[in-house]
Amino acid sequence: MSRRPYTACQVCEKPMWGGQICRPCRIRATAERKAESKMAAKAARTARWPAVGPPNGDRCRVMGCRTPVLLKKHGLCRVHYYQLYQIQRSGGPLLLDPRCPSCGKPIGKHVYLCGKCRIKNEIIINRRIRRARRARERGANHEPYTITEIAARDRYQCGLCRKRVAMTKAVPHPKAPTIDHIIPFADGGDDTRANVQLAHFICNSIKGAGGTQQLALIG
Predict the structure, then answer these.
(1) Is residue 213 part of a domain?
(2) How many domains does the chain have?
(3) Model confidence pTM above 0.85
């Protein structure tokens, strides 16, 4: 003959053989207690996160930190980036929205540039590879540089017509920025910063391989 339950659960009031809480309610209470402790740990880590300012160029965005950034899309140094990574890995909130370092548009966590900027970056890299290959084939010296660096050095002015270059335009626009070799490869020129200048696409096309003649009347 089986025994009858002689007590009831204090939570669900179901009959049970002994104790104060039945096994399902005990499992549920343990899970809720773990979830509360996990949320408290997340809140504590978020509260310890330092104040973050606007993008600061090549320096960390955290107030009082002047360390160079690790990833430009986050604008954080190595230490603060991994602190943020640990918070997000544990399920914490997204404290900083990743943004494209070129145009500032929001991007995903696993990409470095937005779609348009990624295409522009691939074009720049391909042009750099072609210049290096041409210099290697002709036995000329080569050093790495970007058109943005040359444009900033030349103050965004065409080296041939001395007028401002439209940096937002792309080839084949006449005012688009291009790299002009002062002494062309055909005349033994090198692919170095000292031998290149910023030029309009139309000015560079008209000049061709004509040497260092300045086209001041074109533009």
Answers:
(1) no
(2) 2
(3) no
CATH number reported for the structural domain that contains residue 139 in this entry = 1.10.30
Q: Quick check: is 119 in a domain?
A: yes
Domain housing 73: 41-107
Do 89 and 155 sit in the same domain of this protein?
A: no
- Structure-block tokens of residue 97: 């929205």
DSSP 173: S
Give domain status of residue 3, yes or no: no
**Residue 131 phi/psi, 5° resolution?**
-65, -40
Phi-psi region of 19 (alpha: psi -120 to 50; beta: other; left: phi over 0): left
Rounded to whole angstroms, the Cα distance separating 31 from 38 reads: 11
The answer to whether residues 141 and 135 touch, using CB atoms and an 8 Å cutoff, is yes
Per-residue pLDDT of the chain (219 residues; tens, 9 = 90+): 455 556 778 888 887 777 788 888 888 888 888 888 777 766 665 555 566 666 667 788 777 777 887 766 677 787 777 777 776 666 555 556 667 767 777 777 667 778 888 888 888 888 888 888 988 888 889 898 888 899 999 999 999 999 999 988 888 899 999 999 998 888 888 999 999 999 999 999 888 755 445 444 343
Q: What is the torsional sign of CA 42, 47, 49, 53? A: positive
